[in-house]
Automatic annotation (TrEMBL):
<keyword id="KW-0479">Metal-binding</keyword>
<protein>
    <recommendedName>
        <fullName>histone deacetylase</fullName>
        <ecNumber>3.5.1.98</ecNumber>
    </recommendedName>
</protein>
<dbReference type="GO" id="GO:0046872">
    <property type="term" value="F:metal ion binding"/>
</dbReference>
<dbReference type="InterPro" id="IPR037138">
    <property type="entry name" value="His_deacetylse_dom_sf"/>
</dbReference>
<keyword id="KW-0539">Nucleus</keyword>
<feature type="domain" description="Histone deacetylase">
    <location>
        <begin position="34"/>
        <end position="352"/>
    </location>
</feature>
<dbReference type="GO" id="GO:0141221">
    <property type="term" value="F:histone deacetylase activity, hydrolytic mechanism"/>
</dbReference>
<keyword id="KW-0805">Transcription regulation</keyword>
<dbReference type="GO" id="GO:0040029">
    <property type="term" value="P:epigenetic regulation of gene expression"/>
</dbReference>
<keyword id="KW-0678">Repressor</keyword>
<dbReference type="GO" id="GO:0000118">
    <property type="term" value="C:histone deacetylase complex"/>
</dbReference>
<dbReference type="GO" id="GO:0005737">
    <property type="term" value="C:cytoplasm"/>
</dbReference>
<dbReference type="InterPro" id="IPR000286">
    <property type="entry name" value="HDACs"/>
</dbReference>
<keyword id="KW-0804">Transcription</keyword>
<keyword id="KW-0156">Chromatin regulator</keyword>
<keyword id="KW-0862">Zinc</keyword>
<dbReference type="GO" id="GO:0050793">
    <property type="term" value="P:regulation of developmental process"/>
</dbReference>
Length: 719
């Protein structure tokens, strides 16, 4: 029998569109403002109707799901709590429970919304898998991708997409879905989903997100490209972690073309689930306004994301996926908090699914320079699992330089200080303590006269030569490196006034976490526990701010004694990033001039002229503006002139408040020497450890026991 031509209705792609007002019931308990609010769904729904798109779709209502399906992802306790949290029983404790989570609120509608959101993604996924629909969009909330096995977080209660994926794989073998690709393009890392399928090769999880070296929400480090899956799932977890905000269409397209699409081709999924957050969006109207500057335009975009995808950009990303899995695509809404942007973006995506043609034109198709670096790193990490990633990237790639800090600042919440968006959910992110003003410090440590006997450095020696100005002195450092010094009085200290105008965050991880000890490096003198006074900085003004963070670097205690602290090791940070590590740093906002003076003191480069008690600093800075610039790209600078000193390696740990975060530690070569046993690892002396503990406790990071075990653990672990 000759095949009858398909009727027109069947030829047009059947696109499911799930919307249900019942998922608007989840809202803040007292109508407080919150970015994740019911208006998000309504705004999208209105737009799709106004544009005549809803009527072209198969419109579906939300569906509850059974606990047993949610249980494939979440603990029974979690399910029970989420399902009961809206009941009377919790009326008096609901808010308190919410506060225990990170970025979560509950009200009387939360339970129903959450169950419907999970059920709805199951519902559309099933219909697409069964071929009843070609593709579908589930407009659901609360979102899901941050929700973990036993925990709600990041506005997410149940992990809707993960529940649906498990449903298809485990409960519906009849549908023949054996391999699922999850594409998570929400601007935040899909931490929950990643964990769910971390050792499962049936699910390829791909997340592209702002990472900012681990400081962007959820600030866990798990979003690093090094997290590639485990056991059988190795290679089936792919993270593309942007280093900064402002990534836009061009950057995402590059990630698609050079990572996601080649891998998808090889993986050959049976269905694609998109964790479709639209919080990396740039408001369409703003983008269209031809003479709007990038910054002004971005400011109209998502209040949380600080990225620049346009609605057409999303449409193109989606179009590029349509070629796989026979076009079986299920989009589930995740984040996205600018109402106009999310409405326009979902509208653009719906048209793609419906088969409408669109033209993508972007005036600026240049990915950032950092984008290529990130993509290359991802490819290197995964190429053994996906050989197609082994090829060289095209050579003549065009580059755009990293946006300036002020440009970034205008449109991002990479510094999640709560303010407008998170009042309800309490503190979050890697910035774990309040920034406080430093003028509160009244205690002024008097600059002590240096005691010649106790100097941590050798005094001027015999190696002065005639080549130098008579008042110059040449010093042989403890480790043998030669340092040229001049008397301050002789110098025109141009670099000092220069660098006194630049501020940086000095991140301390050792005894300097205790502020009185740190201040010795600024004001001179010694604090409790120190046997040698510091000479201080030339500029003795107090830091402009203090702030704590954790950084993904390993804390270790090495060397076996110091003149100041006696027998025992002192703190170093492994310069290598390790996302399994969390070390506390106390950051002080100081001038770059002061930073150099600290670097001099840490490396014992400041001399006392024995004759008249003058303090002699090196005559040129180790870190100037160009070194800072260099570090922002290269993450570290090993200072050649003092390469054998203990703290010759300056690390760049990211930015805060538009300023670079710098710290000083040992070079990687020393880490190798620690590993080989050539250099000793040694626990800190009691006084030294006590100083760190005081720092952590007075800085409100840990209680005394917590701080002690943090130090002990770092001292006990081998490298
Ligand atoms: C789903 C989503 C964001 C949470 C941000 C918390 N969550 N500051 O976008
Ligand atoms: Zn998000």
């Amino acid at each position: 029998m000759a095949a009858a031509p398909a009727p027109p209705a069947a030829r047009a792609a059947r696109v499911g569109l799930l919307y249900d007002e019942r998922m608007c019931a989840h809202a803040t308990p007292d109508g407080e403002e919150h970015p994740e609010n019911p208006e998000r769904l309504r705004a999208i729904w209105r737009k799709l109707n106004a544009e005549g798109v809803a009527s072209r779709c198969v419109v579906l209502k939300a569906k509850e799901t059974e606990d047993k399906y949610i249980a494939s992802v979440h603990s029974n306790n979690h399910i029970k709590l989420m399902k009961e949290i809206s009941s009377k029983k919790y009326d008096s404790s609901r808010n308190k429970i919410a506060r225990k989570y990170n970025s979560i609120y509950f009200n009387k509608g939360s339970s129903e919304s959450a169950v419907l959101a999970a059920g709805s993604v199951i519902e559309v996924a099933e219909k697409v898998a069964a071929g009843e629909l070609r593709s579908a969009i589930a407009l659901v909330r609360p979102p899901g991708h941050h929700a973990e096995h036993d925990e709600a977080m990041g506005f997410c209660l149940f992990n809707n997409v993960a529940v649906a994926a498990n449903y298809l794989l485990n409960d519906r073998p009849d549908l023949g879905i054996k391999k699922i690709l999850i594409v998570d393009w929400d601007v935040h890392h899909g931490n929950g989903t990643q964990k769910m399928f971390y050792n499962d090769p049936r699910v390829l999880f791909f997340s592209v997100h702002r990472f900012d070296y681990g400081s962007f929400y959820p600030s866990e480090g798990d979003g690093s490209h090094c997290f590639i899956g485990e056991e059988a799932g190795k290679g089936y977890n792919i993270n593309v972690p942007w280093e900064h905000g402002k990534c836009g269409d061009a950057d995402y397209i590059a990630a698609w073309d050079h990572v996601l699409l080649p891998v998808t081709e090889a993986f050959d999924p049976d269905i694609i689930l998109v964790s479709a957050g639209f919080d990396a969006v740039l408001a369409a109207a703003a983008a269209a306004a031809s003479n709007a500057t990038r910054t002004a335009a971005a400011a109209l975009g998502d209040p949380l994301g600080g990225c620049c995808i346009t609605p057409n950009g999303y449409a193109l990303l989606l179009t590029k996926l349509l070629g796989f899995a026979k076009g079986r695509i299920v989009m589930a809404l995740e984040g996205g908090y600018n109402l106009r942007s999310i409405a326009n973006s979902v509208f653009a995506c719906a048209k793609v699914l419906l088969g409408d043609k669109f033209t993508f034109s972007s005036p600026e198709m240049q990915p950032f320079e950092s984008t290529w670096r990130v993509i290359q790193a991802v490819r290197d990490e995964l190429k053994t699992y996906w050989p197609v990633l082994s090829s060289k990237l095209p050579e003549n790639l065009s580059l755009r330089i990293k946006p300036s800090p002020s440009e970034l600042y205008a449109s991002s919440d990479s510094e999640p200080d709560g303010e407008d968006v998170d009042e309800l959910s309490g503190a979050l992110s890697s910035v774990n303590v309040i920034q406080f003003a430093d003028d509160a410090i009244s205690e002024h440590l008097s600059k002590m006269k240096l005691d010649e006997e106790n100097l941590a450095v050798k005094t001027a020696s015999s190696c002065s030569t005639a080549e130098h100005h008579p008042t110059d002195s040449v010093e042989v450092d403890i480790d043998g490196s030669v340092v040229l010094s001049k008397r301050i009085s002789d110098l025109s200290l141009a670099w000092r006034s220069d660098l006194s105008r630049t501020h940086v965050w000095y991140a301390s991880f050792g005894s300097n976490m205790w502020k009185p000890r740190f201040l010795c490096y600024i004001q001179g003198g010694k604090a409790e526990g120190m046997s040698i006074p510091c000479c201080g900085s030339r500029d003795t003004s107090s830091p402009r701010g203090t702030m704590w963070k954790t950084v993904p670097h390993r804390l270790l205690f090495g060397r076996s004694s110091t003149p100041c602290w006696g027998t025992g090791g002192v703190a170093f940070l492994n310069p290598e990033i390790n996302y399994n590590e969390k070390s506390y740093v106390c950051m002080y906002k100081i001038t770059l001039e002061q930073f150099n003076d600290i670097l001099f003191q840490e490396n014992r480069l400041v001399l006392e002229d024995g004759k008249n008690g003058n303090v002699v600093y090196p005559d040129s800075p180790l870190i100037g503006s160009s070194e800072v610039e260099f570090m922002s790209t290269n993450k570290a600078i090993h200072l050649e002139p003092i390469k054998d000193s203990w703290y010759s390696n300056v690390l760049y740990l990211g930015d805060e408040d538009e300023l670079p975060i710098l710290t000083m530690t040992c070079p990687s070569s020393d880490i190798e020497r620690y590993k080989s046993g050539e250099l000793p690892l040694a626990p800190p002396s009691k006084t030294y450890a006590a100083t760190l503990i005081k720092g952590l406790v007075e800085g409100k990071q840990l209680d005394a026991d917590g701080a002690a075990s943090y130090i002990n653990a770092a001292a006990a672990r081998g490298l």
